[in-house]
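new request in #modeling-help
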Amino acid sequence: MEEIAGLESISSFHGRKLVAKRGSQQTVVKYTLEGNLGVLTKAASSVAGMEITSVVVINDNSNHPDASIDGTFISNTRSRYFFGTSVGSILIWQHLEDDLMAGVLDGKDASPSWLPKGKLLSVVMELHDGPIIGLDYCGVVNSDPNSEQYTERIISSSTDGIINVWQLNRNSITSPSQPMDHLGYIELHKEYARSISWNRTGSSALLGTAENSILLLKYDDVDDDIVMDRPNMSVGVVLQSHHGRVHRLAVHPIIRFLVASISSDKTIRLWDFNDRVLVSSFVAVDLLTAVTFSPDGSSLVVGAANGDISVYQCEVLTQCISQFSNQSSSSPSSSWRLDLSNAQWMISRKRNIMLKQSKSYCYMLIR
Amino acid sequence: MAVYRLELAKHLISNVIIERINHEFSKRDKIILDEIKSLIDERMAAWKRDNSNGVNGTTAYPEQHSAPLFAQNIDSSPPNALISSHSTPRNRQEISNKAISSKDTAQESRSKIPKRVSLPKINIPEREKKDFSESTATATGGASLVAGHEEYKQSANVVALPELKPTIQPTAKPQSQQRGSLESKDKDDGDDDPSVSLSGYNAYEMPQRTPLIHKQQSSHSSNIVEPVADGFHYSQCRSKVYGPSYPIEAPDPLSGARLVLHHVYGYDGDPNNKQQPFGSKGKNVFWIDDYRIVYPAAAIIVINDVRRDSKQGFFCGHTDKVTCIAIHPSRRRVASAQGGKESFILIWEPKNIKRGLSVSKSAVKLLSPSGMRSISGLDYSGDGRFLVAAGVSDVRWLIIFDCREGSIIVSMKVGHNDLTQALFNPYSFVPFPEQHVTSSMEQNNSFRKGCYTLVSYGGKHIKFWTLKGKKTLKLRERERERELCDSFYQSHHHSLPSSPSLDIIVTYPVLLL
């Protein structure tokens, strides 16, 4: 394999042949929940078309939720599974306490057979309006010594665009009606969530969206007496990108690090290649095929597949150009930042160049 | 020269006639061939007459259009092509443009040259006269290719070899006016000063053209090119033509060029991607420490800093779209899978990838069973020893890899239902690290209490599994594995490590627990 110098080569090894293992599969299904069978309650199964879309496993046996990573305790198998479903509810399934090892545990043949037992603890309905796509769990060390040592947070994201933060209720085993308490939320626009994960401290969560951007949600701890009406999370952008094929790029003639791109997602986006961020984005009506800046950089010309040529103009960009040229002439080293956050893109001119007779013309050609 | 060409053409035609005489031979074909033969005879006679008057051979074609096919073909042969001037300006420009941009074009045209000679033998009898114009057109193309070739050589000297003067190395100056643009050098100077004598022109030209000339000369005619002692005698040149004293490859300024990845704008977040029908629907953005996140963008896995001055690092070991990512519980190791024709899993360490312009490819590759179209879910066990993959072929598979041995310990079909993901319960089996294991604990096996449990879910099902420890968890086995890993680590510092017992090559001890 050819490699760039200075890099270690990819090593590889081959797994065993599939056929050889077919007779001796070691995986045994102990519990199966299928459709309406198994331990699903009637309440949960009555909803048609419910599917499991996400899962998170939490440990009920340990006081230290992160201890398992350090490997400093022996785990019991007691843990809870939180299943997010496609109807916005959460199923909570638990390994039972009387999970015991069966079989011989002498030194000769340590192959204990384990018979885990489980039950469906509860079904929490109507948490979200859409499928719960992402679930994540985090244990947070409390600074307040009077309270419990850890609070455990679960964050759930859904295609309804709402991110909810829940606090796990440890007493829920005894009182399964309230397995978790609502801590906070934030509302984004729809079809948004794809992947969510807490950071180590539980102070912020990383949200990957279906529109190919990554957001950083910062969660602010609030006191209990604050009314939970307003969202108590803030959004920061880590990266944004098109969610379709990028068709064309155009470099701004004056501000050389400003680049416009068009994509099959019908958006026109302007990028700052210095800071590597998206500076402006607006939506076109039709599928776009071409983009360019005017020579003075004041307007953006976009061609669409239906023959429209649209000239977009933006006052903020014009101001930015003058600022940039002033700044670059006076002191080129100063850090000037392109700010197009308030840019309003207006169509100043529009013309359709599709020939009226183009259809018949094509027809003649084909014949 | 021209006589030779015409004789050759005539020879070919008569050959054709002899070959075809046994077959059905249309009258029209015969007429055409006879016409051509007579034309050739005329031309030969004219050339002999002119040549006896001492006129240069190139003027032997007073009317090129009367016998276009052969005239053009003859012109496309190398020595005449150098002085041919009848290619259309448009062609010439096109070809030369191509030739400037790529060396291959020139080589292609060069390789076409010998084939032109045999062209009429194949084409003439089977075609109608109308088709002659076509073959003429191709012949013209060939000629102009050669003309462009020459231009390329000149322009190549300008572009790629600015410091070397284009030189032919005869003892005397070349006579041909068309070569006037190429400066000549005295042989003595050339020998003394290699930087001058090593002209790009000759380095390219002479070694390739020489065998062609030899071949023609040996097979047919003797008065065209005479190999003199260390030099060639062209009929167009009075003096001998010499090759370079030693041929060199022209230095290519772009030979070491490569693209360096600076930044990736993008993230694969769309779970319903049509180009990735069996991709993961689960998590694919992860923290690997307090500031760095890892996520896939097509076939690249990006390690990004969430702070403002984010510079990215890249893992580029994948060859197809990355479908899913799993993070080792220690967050120091990442497993990533790709779909497509070749579906495999790579295990790599983000610590090798620094911020900014760092591209790493070093990884350990786990091959999934053949026939997998994609891997739609990955997860590490709580101790990081096992890796479960949800495989997609005609049916869905659960595949469990032992990351220490790099082997597949379980691969089983789990049905046709859509399998979204399979996860280990991270808390169900957590052994002590090695240094905490005391001998007494080893004896009573207490640290091995527990089992690996898995959950898989997807269309209309949740399934709970246990992974039965067979004999793999025995103490003996563990020691053996440790030795194995140690041997990997030690041999890493030597040359290519490989283990005789397993087909494993590891460049660094990524498999160590």
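bot summary: The radius of gyration of chain A is 29 Å.
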